[in-house]
Design brief:
Elements: H1 5-24, H2 28-167, H3 169-173, E1 177-182, H4 185-193, H5 198-204, E2 209-215, E3 224-230, E4 233-234, H6 236-251, E5 256-262, E6 264-265, H7 267-276, E7 279-282, E8 285-287, H8 289-297
Parallel strand pairs: 3-5, 4-6, 5-7
Antiparallel strand pairs: 1-2, 2-3, 7-8
Length: 298
């Protein structure tokens, strides 16, 4: 039990008086010892209770400290496990980083190799472009040469074909006419100049071939003239020229059938011949004859 300061002071005064009294009367010492012992015995249960309470509090505190210790150890164990996991993760990260660094190094090396190959390809492409350019120029020159040759060959073939029609008119038109003869321009010069302008005469002078003969199926009829345009490949322009030049001869008073002749014809030529009333003589085959003849006789 804790005493107040007032009680302590009172006790101190009492003990001083007791000391003086004991000195004065020694016989009182034994009685005083009995009194003190009695007071201590009376206070003992309370002290025991206080000590018991203190012991209980101490036990509780120890238990709390033990619980806190266990919790700390558990947290420490979890922390150690977490640190171990972090260490393992760090180790795996370092391994992955090492592999990544190796991969990046390989990629960098591959990139350098690719750059070198691209440079080589660029140089090769430049050389190839130069060669292609030279080849293109050569092809262009060759194309021009071939075009000129084609034109020349076409002219030669046309002239040869024209000569063939001129020399062998029966081979081409014998089934249509008899007594066929080739008419040269001087024979009709006076006739056409009396009916045509200078420009029209000049146009007529470009006619490839002029033939004259009697109809094989109607020999009693007057002579029929053929204004022939010859080309190795007959196109619509050949048909148009035959039509135009035959019309000039018709203007001069002749019964003229326009003819476009050759070895081959384009589809456009056949269509235009049918529309314009022009005979087609292609490699010995004759078409649109009756239509053109009726137009000439009419």
């Amino acid at each position: 039990m804790v005493r107040s300061e007032e009680n302590v002071a009172t006790d101190e005064v009492t003990w001083e008086e007791l000391l003086r009294l004991v000195e004065a009367r020694p016989d009182l010492l034994e009685r005083l010892r009995q009194v003190v012992l009695t007071r201590e015995l009376l206070a003992l249960p309370e002290a025991v209770r206080e000590l018991t309470e203190i012991q209980r509090q101490t036990t509780l505190q120890i238990q709390a400290l033990a619980q806190a210790q266990r919790q700390s150890e558990e947290r420490l164990s979890r922390l150690e496990a977490a640190v171990q996991e972090l260490a393992e993760a760090q180790r795996r990260s370092e391994e992955r980083l090492s592999r990544l660094e190796a991969t990046v190094q390989e990629l960098a090396e591959a990139q350098r190799e690719t750059g070198r190959q691209i440079q080589e390809l660029r140089q090769g492409l430049e050389e190839l472009s130069s060669q292609v350019h030279e080849l293109a120029q050569a092809v262009f020159r060759l194309t021009e040469t071939v075009t000129r040759l084609e034109g020349t060959v076409g002219d030669i073939k046309g002239r040869l074909l024209e000569m063939a029609y001129r020399e062998r008119p029966y081979a081409y038109f014998g089934r249509l006419l008899r007594s066929i003869r080739v008419v040269h321009f001087p024979e009709i010069e006076d006739l056409v100049e009396g009916h045509l302008s200078r420009e029209e005469v000049d146009e007529l002078l470009q006619l490839d071939l002029l033939l004259c003969g009697r109809l094989r199926e109607h020999p009693e009829r007057p002579e029929v003239w053929l204004a022939v345009e010859v080309s190795s490949v007959v196109d619509k322009w050949d048909v148009e020229r035959a039509k135009k030049r035959a019309a000039l001869l018709q203007k001069a008073g002749l019964r003229v059938v326009p003819v476009a002749a050759g070895l081959h014809s384009l589809p456009e030529a056949a269509h235009k011949a049918e529309v314009e009333g022009v005979t087609l003589a292609i490699d010995g085959a004759v078409s649109c004859w009756e239509q053109a003849l009726q137009s000439a006789l009419g």
